[in-house]
Amino acid sequence: MNFVKRAVLSLWARKGRTLITFATFLVISVMVLAGVLINSATGQAEQEAKQSVGAEVNLGMDTDALSQRGGGMQAPQIDASVVDKMGRLPQVQKYTYSMWDRVIVKDGAKLVPGGSGEPMGPGGTVGQGVLDSSLLADFRSGKFKLLSGKHLTAADKDKKKVLVEERFARENGLKVGDKVKLTGNDEKTSDTFTVGGIYRAPGSEPDPEYRIAPANMIYGTVGGFSALGAPGGGSPKVGKASFLLTGADAQKTFKDQAQQVAGSALDGFKLDVNDKAIQQMTGPLKSISSTANLAMWLIGIAGAAVLALLVNLAVKQRRTEYGVLVSIGEKKWKLITQQALEIVVVAALAIGLSSLFAPQLTQNAGQALLGKEATQAQKKIDSWQPPAPGSTGLGEGIDRDDQPVDNADPIDKIDVSLDPADLAAVGGIGIGIGLLATAIPAGAVLRLSPRSILTKGN
Questions:
Q1: CA–CA separation, 271 vs 294, rounded Å?
Q2: Least confident stretch, 9-23, 58-72, 272-286
Q3: Which residues on adjacent β-strands are paired with residue 398?
Q4: Which of 179, 228, 232, 326 could cross-link with 450 by S-S, CB 3.0 to 4.6 Å?
């Protein structure tokens, strides 16, 4: 009789054992498929988060390197021309750098009341020179909003333009296109700047870093502000920069090439990947992915062990059948193939059935788990409180690095879908487990002679 036909008859004749094997395979298939689907869905959501946030690398002071050198913690500066070279690397989509100094408003202009008195003297406030104001973290996150005019860009680098906050503009009757006179920190060098845009900054609490009212922060072109701070020309010096890359995969290549381009000019600086927003958004995804993986492995291993015991018992119960078939001239490899075929048929049916309801089951279970994780993460974000104005927060146990990123809410939705590749992976794993569980006991039995098979164990 053909061994394929024998396999079909054997499955039908042993309905109880077939159903138990089928149920075991079904549990294994559902759990493994659920784990694969969760990984696929969370991976896709994480990739979309990276694309929405963008890949950003920040150039800033390397406090560890400076402290090892000794001699104080004076902030290093880098020539703007070096940063421009880094910004021209092919991995960079846009970039900006900034510097700050005290500027003094003149000719009847006045600051908005607030802040910690006059921390920078009468009429003094912070003037921050930027290459591209649209790349500043507060504007990118949506915390600051440009109400009128245009952002400062690299094309404005050598022009004398500023962005002012709407309360400062209202206090001084300014609109886009008007002029405002500013004096540098030396209290001698003055120049007239054009209002290029008016923005809105929320709140009135003093800025924790500069202790001035947020309404008095003035952003200007790097060329215009550097002339106030260092009259007589020369390339401006900057203290930090941000590079928006073409994609997250370009980070390592950019950092390597930036080191080559800048050389020793980067001493005292470090290039940090700004993935804080991505980590905040994808934290719940990583949590449910690890939970799903753990459950998948535990159920898969336990199911495989049960399946191996069932198959081993079934093979031993069929010693007489094997002995008779071998005695009448049946090839041993055909008997092993028959046993494997029986397992493959059961596994295929179980995997096929699991593919019908596992995606929806995984969607419901995964969404419920993700919703809980996202809610907890959001509560943690909402409960964070900044340190008091003028305080570093260290005395209160507050780490500024833990400050949540605006407009980076934890992801609370996933879209589970079954791809052919996912089903193929589960099928390969399930059938592989079944074949391995079959081959080991069957091979051990069939290595014996027909006489031994018929007499051993009776």
A1: 35
A2: 58-72
A3: none
A4: 326
User: What does the chain come to in residues?
Assistant: 458
Mean pLDDT, to the nearest integer, of 35-49?
A: 81
Render pLDDT for 105-142 as a digit per residue (tens, 0 to 9). 987 788 888 766 677 888 889 999 999 998 887 887 77
Q: What is the pLDDT of residues 167-211, one digit of tens each?
A: 999 999 999 999 999 998 888 888 999 999 999 998 887 777 777
3-class DSSP string for the chain: CCHHHHHHHHHHHCHHHHHHHHHHHHHHHHHHHHHHHHHHHHHHHHHHHHHHHCEEEEEEECHHHHHHHCCCCCCCCEEHHHHHHHHCCCCEEEEEEEEEEEEEECCCCCCCCCCCCCCCCCCEEEEEEECCHHHCHHHHHCCCEEEEECCCCHHHCCCCEEEEEHHHHHHCCCCCCCEEEEECCCCCCEEEEEEEEEEECCCCCCCCCCCCCHHHCEEEEHHHHHHHHCCCCCCCEECEEEEEECCHHHHHHHHHHHHHHHHHHHCCEEEEECCHHHHHHHHHHHHHHHHHHHHHHHHHHHHHHHHHHHHHHHHHHCHHHHHHHHHCCCCHHHHHHHHHHHHHHHHHHHHHHHHHHHHHHHHHHHHHHHHHHHHHHHHHHHHCCCCCCCCCCCCCCCCHHHCCCCCCCCCCCCCCCCCHHHHHHHHHHHHHHHHHHHHHHHHHHHCCCHHHHHHCCC
> Can you give the pTM of this predicted structure?
0.59
pLDDT at 446: 64
